[in-house]
C-alpha cells in the first residue's frame, strides 16, 4: 500500500468491506468503554466501600461492567457487518418468554441496585416497611432481611421495599418522644414541672440540644395534664423513654405529688319526693334464692 494514498475509507483487505476508519472507531469505542468502566469502578468503590458488604459491592461492580461491555458490543457489531435484525428476530420470542418468567427477578435485581446506591436504609437500622417493623439484618441484591422485635425472620423482595413507604426510625441522629403526665388539681403545677425538668436534666442520654419541653397542656376530667417532650439519641431512644417515665413517677411521688386515677362525682336528683336509704352490711332484703 502506498502511504501517500492511505484513506480511512479504504478496505482493510480486498475481500472485506471493513475500512480502516471502522477499525479506528472500534478501537476508540473499546478504549472509551474501558475508561468509563474503570472510572465507575473507582467511584463506586470509594462511595460504597464503607456502606455495603464486600460481596454486594462486587455484585454491583460486575453488573455495571457487564452492562457497559454489552452496550459497547452491540454498538460495535454493525461495523463488522453483523446484521442485528436477524438476532433480534430470533431472540424476540425467547426474550419474551424469559422476560415474563424473570420479570420479578429482574425487578428485584434493579431495585436492589437502586437501594444499594440510594441507601434509604442500612444494616442495623430500625425501620417499618409496609407494616413490618424490626431491625435490618441484611440487604442482598434480591431481597432485604428484617428481624422483627419478636425475633421473627422476614424476607422482603427488594422490589417491594423500593416501591413501599419506608419509615426509618434511626435515619436521623436524634428522635423525640413525649408523655402526658397527670397531676391532681390540688397539686402545685410549677413545682411538678421543675421536678420533671430536673429528672430529664439528670439523665445522661437526654439531649440538651434540642432541649426538652415541659408545660401544662390540658385541664382534663381527672387531672391537670402536663406534656413532656424529650429528645434522645435514636439508637438509645427506647431505653431513655422507658427509664425516664418511671423516674418521673417516682420523683413526683417522693415530693408528695400522686398520679391521679380516674374518678367521678355522682349527684342524685330526687324529683319524685322519694327517699334514698343507705343500707349497712347485713341489712335489706335477701337476694332471690338465698336462705337465712
UniProtKB/TrEMBL annotation:
The keyword Phosphoprotein does not apply. GO terms for molecular function: mechanosensitive monoatomic ion channel activity. One of its GO terms (cellular component) is plasma membrane. The keyword Cell membrane applies. It is a multi-pass membrane protein. Residues 105-170 form the Mechanosensitive ion channel MscS domain. InterPro entries: LSM_dom_sf (IPR010920), MS_channel_1st (IPR049142), MS_channel_C (IPR049278), MscS_archaea/bacteria_type (IPR045275), MscS_beta-dom_sf (IPR023408), MscS_channel_2nd (IPR006685), MscS_channel_C_sf (IPR011066), MscS_channel_TM-2 (IPR011014). It holds the Pfam family MS_channel_3rd. The chain crosses the membrane at residues 20-43, 63-80, 92-117. Residues 62-103 form the Mechanosensitive ion channel transmembrane helices 2/3 domain. It is found in: Cell membrane. Its main location: membrane. Residues 178-259 form the Mechanosensitive ion channel MscS C-terminal domain. Keywords: Cell membrane, Membrane, Transmembrane, Transmembrane helix. Belongs to the MscS (TC 1.A.23) family. This is Mechanosensitive ion channel protein MscS.
Amino acid at each position: 500500500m502506498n502511504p501517500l494514498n492511505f484513506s480511512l475509507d479504504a478496505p482493510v483487505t480486498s475481500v472485506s468491506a471493513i475500512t480502516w476508519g471502522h477499525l479506528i472507531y472500534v478501537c476508540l469505542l473499546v478504549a472509551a468503554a474501558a475508561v468509563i468502566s474503570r472510572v465507575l469502578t473507582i467511584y463506586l468503590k470509594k462511595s460504597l466501600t464503607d456502606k455495603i458488604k464486600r460481596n454486594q459491592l462486587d455484585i454491583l461492580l460486575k453488573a455495571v461492567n457487564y452492562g457497559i461491555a454489552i452496550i459497547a458490543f452491540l454498538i460495535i457489531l454493525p461495523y463488522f457487518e453483523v446484521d442485528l435484525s436477524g438476532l433480534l428476530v430470533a431472540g424476540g420470542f425467547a426474550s419474551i418468554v424469559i422476560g415474563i418468567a424473570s420479570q420479578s427477578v429482574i425487578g428485584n435485581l434493579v431495585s436492589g441496585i437502586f437501594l444499594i446506591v440510594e441507601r434509604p436504609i442500612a444494616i442495623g437500622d430500625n425501620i417499618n416497611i409496609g407494616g413490618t417493623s424490626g431491625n435490618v439484618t441484611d440487604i442482598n441484591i434480591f431481597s432485604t432481611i428484617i428481624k422483627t422485635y419478636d425475633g421473627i425472620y422476614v424476607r422482603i423482595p427488594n422490589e417491594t421495599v423500593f416501591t413501599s413507604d419506608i419509615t426509618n426510625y434511626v435515619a436521623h441522629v436524634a428522635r423525640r418522644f413525649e408523655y402526658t403526665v397527670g397531676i391532681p388539681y390540688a397539686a402545685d403545677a410549677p413545682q411538678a414541672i421543675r421536678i420533671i425538668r430536673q429528672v430529664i436534666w439528670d439523665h445522661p442520654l437526654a439531649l440538651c440540644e434540642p432541649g426538652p419541653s415541659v408545660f401544662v397542656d390540658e385541664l382534663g376530667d381527672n387531672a391537670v395534664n402536663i406534656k413532656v417532650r424529650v429528645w434522645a439519641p435514636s439508637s438509645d431512644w427506647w431505653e431513655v423513654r422507658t427509664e425516664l417515665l418511671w423516674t418521673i413517677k417516682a420523683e413526683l411521688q417522693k415530693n408528695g405529688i400522686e398520679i391521679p386515677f380516674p374518678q367521678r362525682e355522682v349527684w342524685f336528683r330526687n324529683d319524685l319526693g322519694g327517699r334514698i336509704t343507705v343500707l349497712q352490711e347485713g341489712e335489706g332484703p335477701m337476694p332471690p334464692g338465698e336462705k337465712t
